[in-house]
Amino acid sequence: MLNRKLRNAFTLETVLLILTQPWEEQSCDCCSAPGNCCLNPSTLTQKLHLGGSERGRGNEQPWGKPCTQLLVSVATPGCDGFPSLDSKESYKLSISEDSLLLSADAVWGALRGLETFSQLVGRDEDGTYYVNETEIVDFPRFRHRGLLLDTSRHYLPLKAILQTLDVMAYNKFNVFHWHIVDDPSFPYESVTFPELSRKGAFNAITHVYTASDVKAVIEYARLRGIRVIAEFDTPGHTLSWGPGAPGLLTPCYSGKNLSGTYGPINPILNSTYEFVTRFFQEVSAVFPDFFLHLGGDEVDFTCWKSNPKIRAFMQEMGFGDDFTKLESFYIQRLLDIISSFGKGYVVWQEVFDNGVKVRPDTIVHVWKENATPYMQEMAQVTKAGYRALLSAPWYLNHISYGQDWMEAYQVEPLKFEGSPEQKDRVIGGEACMWGEYVDVTNLTPRLWPRAGAVAERLWSNATVRNLQDAYVRLASFRCELLRRGIQAQPLFTGYCDHEFSGF
Amino acid sequence: MGLGGLLVGLFLVSAVLVGTSVRHGVPRAEPEPEPELELAEWDPASGAFPEDSLWPLPQSLRTSPRQLQLAPDRFQIVHGAGSSAGPACALLQDAFRRYYEYMFGYARWLQRGRKGLAAKPELAQLQVVISSPEPGCNGYPQLASSEAYRLTITEPVAVLKADEVWGALRGLETFSQLVHEDDYGSFLVNASEIYDFPRFAHRGILLDTSRHYLPLKSILTNLDAMAFNKFNVLHWHVVDDQSFPYQSIYFPELSNKGAYSYNHIYTPTDVHLVIEYARLRGIRVIPEFDTPGHTQSWGQGQKDLLTPCYSGKQPSGSFGPVNPILNTTYDFMTKFFKEISSVFPDDYIHLGGDEVSFACWKSNPEVKEFMKKQGFGIDYAKLESYYIQKILDIVSSYNKGYVVWQEVFDNKAQLKPDTVIEVWMGNNYVQELSSVTGAGFTAILAAPWYLDYISYGQDWKKYYSVEPLDFPGSEKQKKLVIGGEACLWGEFVDATNLTPRLWPRASAVGERLWSSRNVTDLNDAYKRLSNHRCRMLSRGIAAEPVFVGYCAHEARGR
C-alpha cells in the first residue's frame, strides 16, 4: 500500500478505526488555533478519493467508533509562500483510536503527510474505509527530488503537465524541472519578446504556453509543494530562438561564405547580452523559484569555428583554439546577469567540466552516463565544493524490454569516494523524460510507475533497497494510481481491481 | 489574407453554380466527358503531393496536380450503378458513414457547410461498385477474400470498384487518406487513379489478453487502427498460463476460477461484439487456445486436465502441461473445441503448441509408464506430437483449419498438408521459413515483429526493413508464405500503454505486408508514417510520435 518505506513506522494488525462520515462535513479544529494553518477540506476529499460507501454508513458497525477527523497541525504558517530548497517536508502521523493527528513544521510537510495518510486508508469488501493504528515519523532523504519534462521536442498540452504534477505529488517529488525550450521549438510565450514563440513554436497559436498557462503550472505545483525550475538552455540547443531573435545565433560559414545555417548563440556581440539580460529579467520575474536552470550542455563548436569574426574575437581575447574558453566567456557573463537578478542557478555538468568560473552556490547537474563514470563526476563536483544533482542513471526516456525500474531503483546516489561534507553536497536528483519520442500519447505510461522508483530512492532511507518488497509495494501503488485515474503502465503480468478505463 | 483570398472571392460565383447543378441531379459516372486529366507517375521524392500521407502505399498510383474540392454538406458516398451491393448492405452503409466522419469530422463541417467553394471543380460523390454477384455483405472475410480495388478520382464523381466488399473497405480507407483539408478549411483531393491489392493475404496483429486483461473498448479501438493500416487478421491470444478470461458456455468454471477476477472476463456477448466489429472492418478473428503448454490457468476450473508433477515419489502439488495420457483430456478438448469452432466463424483456429516444458511429464510415473507402452522411449517430443495429432484430428472434424507455432513442425508432428505454421523464433527464422515451406507447408512470419520488445529510438525501421521472402527457396516455396503478424505480447502491456506501444510501430509491418516489395525507401516511409500517425491521432488513436515534431491536431491530454 505505501509507496515508500517509512523511516519509522509501526502498524497494528487489528483494524480499529473506520471513516464513515462524508469528509465535507468535518470541521478543521486546528484552523482557529493561533499559529496553525488550515488545509481546505475539499482538497482532502479529492486527495483521499473517498467514494463513500452506502453500506459502510449503516448502524451496525462491527468496528470501533468511527473517526471523523484528521487533525492537521502546522507549526509555522506559510500557506501563501512557495516551496524552496530549504522547505521542511517532515511530518508526524499519529493514528490511534482516540485521534488522527498529522503534525508538521510547515505546510509542505503536511502535504506529504496527507499523501501518506491517503495511502494508508484501505477499504474492505463491504466498502468500509479503514486505517490501521499507526505511528509515522517521516522526512525526505534528499531535498531536491525532481522530474524533467521536455516541451520542446514535442509540445505537451497544459493538462498533461498538470496531471504529471498530480502524480509527482503522489510520489513525493518536489521539483518540476521544465525544459521548456530547445532546438526543435520555442513554446514559451515571452512578453518581452513575443516573436520568439510566434516564429519558434511548432504553431504560434496552439503549441505555446501563454503567460497564464505558466502561472497555472506554477500555482498548481505550489499547491502540491512542488517547485518549478525553468530551464532556458543556452548557448547551444537554441535553434528555435533564431527566427524570433534576428542576430542572436551565430551564422555558420561554409568556406568564405555564409552557409545559411546557424549555430549556438553568438557570444561576441553586445546585442546578445542585451537580449539575454532583458529576456532573463522576464524569466526571473515569471518564475518565483530562487533557481533557474541555465543549461550549458552540448555546445557544438563547429559553427563558431567556421565563423571568421568569432575566430578574430578568439585571437583578440587570447583564447587560442580553445573554444571551451569562448563558451566559458559566454556562460560567465550569463551567470553574472542572472546573479544580478538575485537568482541562483543550476547548470549541466559541462559548465563545470569546462572550468567555467561559477559562484560557489552553483548547483551542477550530472547527466552524462559514460564519458566520465557518473559517480566519479559526482565526486569531482562535490570535491570542488559545488552542490550536485544526479540524473545520469535516471534518463527514463531510454526504454528497454522488461522491468527496468529495478535498475533505476538500485542506484545509490552517494556511492562515490568522498568525505561526509562532499556527500552532504548531493542535494538530490532528477528523473528525466526527454521528448524525442514522447508526447501526450505515451508520456504518462512511460513515466509512471517507473519514475516512482527514483522517487523512493530520493525520499526513503538508503537502506530501503529490497527489490521484492519494492515490487509488491510499487505494483499495488500502480493500481492505486489507476484508481486515481492515472494511466500508469503495469510492472509485470497481473491485474488491478480498477483497471484503466479512461479512453 | 492576400491574393489567395481575393481569388477565392472571385471564383465564388462559378463554385456556387457547380454546387447548384449537383444538388439538382445526381451526376452519372459513365457518360460524362473525360475531363482533362494530366496524370503523372507519382514521384515519391517530390514531396509536393498530398499522397505523402498514404499508408500503406498502394500498388499502383497515378495522380495529377489537379485538385477537386469536396463540400461536406453535399458530398456523398453512394452505391454506384451496376453494383451488386445496395443500401441493404449494412456493412457498406456503416463504412460509408464511418469514412465520411473520418474525412470531415463530426460537427465541424456543419458550421462550414454554408461557406462557398473556392475556384476548384467539385467532387460530388464517391460511387462504390461491387462487381461480384456475391458482394459478401453478410459474410466473413477469409484468407481467400479479394481485397483488390480500383479507385478513379475525377470530377464530378469518383468511382471505387471492387470485386467484394472487402476490397471496397480498403479502397474507402485509401480514398479517405487522399482527402485533405487546406489552410482555409477546404477539403481537397487530387485527381488520381489507383489500382491496389495486398502483397500478402494474411496481415495480422496478435493481442494477448491473458498476461493482462484488455478491456473490450481497447480491443475495439485497435481494430479501428488495424483497419487504418489495412491489417486483416486479429490473432486473439485469449488465454495463457496467467489467466483465462474467455467465458466458455460449456465450461464456465474455466473463467470462474481461471480469470483474474469476475470483472476480467470476455462474455459470449463480448466475443460476438469483437467478431462483428472486426467483420465490419474486413478483419478476421483467429482465436488462439494454446495447448498443451501455457495452460496453467485452465487447471483451476477443470479438474485433472493438467499433468500433476511429482517430486520424487510424491505429487508436488504443482501442475504441468495438459495431461496427454487420459481419455478425459480428449473428451474435454472435443467438447471445448466444438464450442470454439462454433463461436468463432473463421476457417482457422490457432492451436498454439509452443514452449512445452517436459520437466513435469518426466516427473510423473504414469506418464513415464505411458511412454513405455507407446514405445516413445524417452523422446517426449513424441508424446507432445501424440497429443497434438489428436487435437488436430478433433479440430479437423469440425471442418476447421489450424495454425500452430513452429515447434509443432520442428517436433515432427504429423500434420495435415493445409496446416499453417507460424514462425516466431527470432534466432533463425530465415532458415525456418525455408524448412517449413520446403516441406510444403504454408507459413506466417512473426519472428522479426515482436513489438513487445521495445528499445530506444526509431525501431520501426527495423520492422520495416524485413523482407519476408528473403530466404533460400523456390518460387513455389515463396508462394507458401501467406503473410505475417506483428505480436504484442502482454507481459508489460495493458490498456494503459497498448495503443502507443503498438501504433505506429505496427504500421511498419502493415506496409511491409501490403505494399509492393520494392517499397523500401526509409526517408519516404518516415515522411508518410509521420503524417499517417497524425491522421491516426485525429481519428482517436493515441499513436506515439515517430520522432521530434508535432501534429496540427495533437491528442488531447485527459
Indicate the topology.
The complex is a heterodimer of chains A (503) and B (558).
Chain A: E1 8-19, H1 41-48, E2 71-74, E3 91-95, E4 100-104, H2 107-120, E5 122-123, E6 129-138, E7 144-150, H3 158-170, E8 175-179, H4 195-200, H5 211-223, E9 227-231, E10 249-254, E11 257-265, H6 270-286, E12 291-293, H7 302-306, H8 308-317, H9 323-340, E13 344-348, H10 349-353, E14 363-366, H11 374-383, E15 387-390, H12 405-410, H13 420-424, E16 426-433, H14 443-447, H15 450-459, H16 467-483
Parallel strand pairs in A: 2-4, 7-8, 7-16, 8-9, 12-13, 13-14, 14-15, 15-16
Antiparallel strand pairs in A: 1-6, 3-4, 3-6, 5-6, 10-11
Helix pairs in contact in A: 3-5, 6-9
Chain B: H1 3-10, H2 12-24, E1 40-41, E2 60-70, E3 76-79, H3 90-104, H4 108-112, E4 125-130, E5 149-153, E6 157-162, H5 165-178, E7 180-181, E8 187-196, E9 202-208, H6 216-228, E10 233-237, H7 253-258, H8 268-279, E11 284-288, H9 296-299, E12 306-311, E13 314-322, H10 327-343, E14 348-350, H11 359-363, H12 365-374, H13 380-397, E15 401-405, H14 406-410, E16 420-423, H15 429-438, E17 442-445, H16 460-464, H17 475-479, E18 481-488, H18 498-502, H19 505-514, H20 522-538
Helix pairs in contact in B: 3-5, 6-8, 10-13
